[in-house]
Amino acid sequence: MHILIISISYFLGSLPTGFLFGKFLKNIDLRLIGSGSTGATNVLRNVGKWPAFFCFYY
Q1: Using CA atoms, how far apart are residues 12 and 6, in angstroms rounded to an integer?
Q2: CA dist., res. 35 & res. 4, Å (int)
Q3: Domain residue spans in the chain?
């Protein structure tokens, strides 16, 4: 049971949420815009407040 929880946590932690928000919401590649980072600050500047909040939180 612990191995399943660890595996799911590892998978969820490896998802690039900033990149996914940029791609699905605005159809942009955040790695090519702004600072080039897929972090919450670049998401805030280029995608919006709510996606940046979720990117920061998750």
Answers
A1: 10
A2: 36
A3: 16-57
Q: How many C-alpha atoms does 18 have within 13 Å on its Cβ side?
A: 20
55 closest CA partner among 33, 24, 32, 7: 24
- Give the Cα separation of 58 and 55 in Å (integer): 5
13 with 38: CB under 8 angstroms? no
pTM for this predicted structure:
0.79
Residue-level pLDDT at 39 = 93
Q: What is the mean predicted confidence (pLDDT) over 29-47?
A: 94
Asked whether 33 and 42 are in contact (CB, 8 A), the reply is yes
